[in-house]
Fold these 2 entries.
Entry 1:
Amino acid sequence: MKILKTILNYLIAVVTAFLLASVAGTQVIVSELQGFGLAVPVSDRLAATLHDIAGLAPTLTILIAVAFLIAFVIAALGSRYVGGRRTYWYLAAGFTSPPAALMLLKFLMGATLFAAARTPAGMLLFALCGMTGGWLFARLTQTRTKE
């Protein structure tokens, strides 16, 4: 039963990181369009956001899921055998793994699959979305101790 709860919490963290990254990514791109002098009404921002969530879901969710799976296993092992605060391990895992996966794909395929992460600020934003997912997973899976 515990494994099912852990899997559910993992999926919640993945979906949260994906949604945050997708929304943030859309807003980065729309802001770049506005930088060219184009007016983008709120209704268009919302429509673009929903379109990107639907369009990015298959690819970006899998990317984040695989990145988190590897990083969360390392975080669990590091927390257990190296020590330190468990939450910090998952924060670091969430912060580093999605950008690392994007960089690996760029190296292998020659293209950045997530347009908003083509700039350092966009990559930082993507990392922060991942960090939020890592924090959420750590929080959802923490064990409660009785005092």
Note: The helical segments are 2-35, 42-81, 86-109, 120-141.
Entry 2:
Amino acid sequence: MKNYHSTQKGFTLIEMIVSLAVFSTVITIAVGALLMLIGTNQRLQDEQTVMTNLSFALDSMTREIRTGTNYYCLSDDDIDGGGAGQRIFEDGEDLDFSPTQDCVDGNNDSSPRRYHGMSFVESGQSITEVANTRIAYFVDLTSGIMYRRISGQAAEQITSSGLEVVHAEFFVTGSTRLVDGGAGADKQPTVTIVLEARDRTSESGETYHVQTTVTQRSADL
């Protein structure tokens, strides 16, 4: 009778431990990289959502502001105290045609304010279909929403509910018309808008900034 001796051998305990350690290391690195990619993709989606919304709002504003006249930048939150030219936030209020006012330093002052915004008179009547109508753009920093309002009408929201505007500044220079004379009347009107916003649904809370400068297209006469 012949005896057959098997030459097969199993893994030793040390080999099993080393293999598990290598496998665990590789899996940990792979999972970490995957989670990083998921997080990066989410941040990019949040950024795209915010920037797309802000870009739409800015494009809408700049098209109308560029062809406007009689720029009026709000200097305080006093809705009723400064005349009808300042009541740009109150629904249904008529806005005066004539007032102009600069905000060289933006809408901020020593005390935080709820509203930041400006208004202007439409050039022609292609937008509102009524000649010499004042249009206002402003941000309610309490709700984080940007609005557009036509004189005598209710304000309309122009940013999505999922977007929160956390900071807004409107800088206006050269608003005084040449025919009215006075300081700065010889300067072409310029409006600079600075916005900072975030996605309300984002867990990171990261904010994104946009800025644009608009110069009055027609001669400031």
Note: Confidence is low (pLDDT under 50) at residues 78-85.
